[in-house]
Amino acid sequence: MTAKDIAKITVNLIVIYVIGGLILAFVYAKASPIMFIKAKEEKEAALKTMMPDADKIEAIGKWEPHHKHAEYYAARKCGEVKVHSVKDEKTGKMREEKECINPRDMGYVVESFGKGYSSYINLLVSVDNNFTVKKINILHHAETPGLGDEIEKDYFLKKFEGKTLDTLVVIKGETADKVEAISGATISSRAVTEDGVKNGVKMLMEKISVSGEEKKEEQGKEQDHGSH
Amino acid sequence: MAHTNKSNWELIKNGMFSENTIFRMAISLCPSIAVTNSLKNGFFMGVSVIFVQTMVNLTVSLIRNFINPKIRIPIFMMIIAGYVSLIDMSMAAFARPVYKQIGLYIQLIVAFASIFARAEVFAVKNKIIPSIADGLGMGIGFFLAMMIISFFRELLGRGALWGIPIVSGNPLLIMILPAGGFFAVGLLMGFFNWVDAKMAERKAAQETTEKQAA
Lengths: 228, 214
Hints:
The complex is a heterodimer of chains A (228) and B (214). Chain A has 228 residues and is of the alpha+beta class. Chain A has three helices and nine strands, in the order H-E-E-E-E-E-E-E-H-E-E-H. The relative contact order of chain A is 0.10. Chain B has one domain (8-213). In chain B, strand 1 and strand 2 (164-165) form a beta hairpin.
């Protein structure tokens, strides 16, 4: 192979890869903002279904179940909603902006992961202020079709309503207050109940009761300061 | 294979039957076994492959004179991966509901030996129109194979078709597990070979009777 051949091959490869790269970059530039917005909207919609009564669901912190990124949220109900008309600086049009007055926490939503039979099961759990489970929802998983994928079904998800840390336990066979395992999919049932949901609730209890105590302490300090 | 003399229709039929990706060439078995546990999955995988196979063949044929034979493999890779990313990105942005259904399969196509093979064996040596015909034929052949395999697997494994329950009772769970995929492909491949052998026998018998008659 002569130097000329090598140069030819190099140029050939570079030209085709650069063209391909440019096309991809162009499409990415067009598609990525839309992709990002839609993904965000979908996430918000998923959160909304977890707490349909809440006016606002805000991220209040991050945690890492199984070294994966997940967030937890406070669901808030407004004491009063004020609507302001605001002039949009970009378009010059008037638009409405809602202001939430005296919001109070009505519960929390947490994203969690459970290690299943063949995948990490990604799920959402919503709890009320007493950390009793209101609802769970499976976002993503790759469990065995026909067995493990029963965890998506309503009859299984409904079992979680009203569960607390003590009753989030999987039982094979009939049970009055705990979670009954799906027959043939005990590992997936356990992953959802005792790994994903339970750890999510536990984490929320720790973080939120701790930050609540901190707040109280701070308030207490302020009061002390005032009395002196 | 050098320059083809076959008509476009023959090329399409070739991909559908005599060189069927799954049942004749036995390539791309791995991703296909993964997704054929329901008719719906098989259908979407098949449609995705028809599209990507045709587009890749078209592109490779279009630029075949610019491809230095020594570096054809990295260039094919670039074209296939490029198409897959392109479709993946544009679907994620502009066709969200469809993306949720078939996004996963589109990404799987990157690892498809069959698409690579047709670029290498056919498109790089032939004109654009025959290359499109070949891509279409191979894609449709793959699609048909997906439909047949997933039809039996879902029917036997879940007692349902397209998610709709058809037979009640205890289904053969193994059919929707990966092992069942191998069973289904193996048995169907055997069945088609048997049909082929029978047809060849009949043809031979006919020819001999014709000869005797003559």
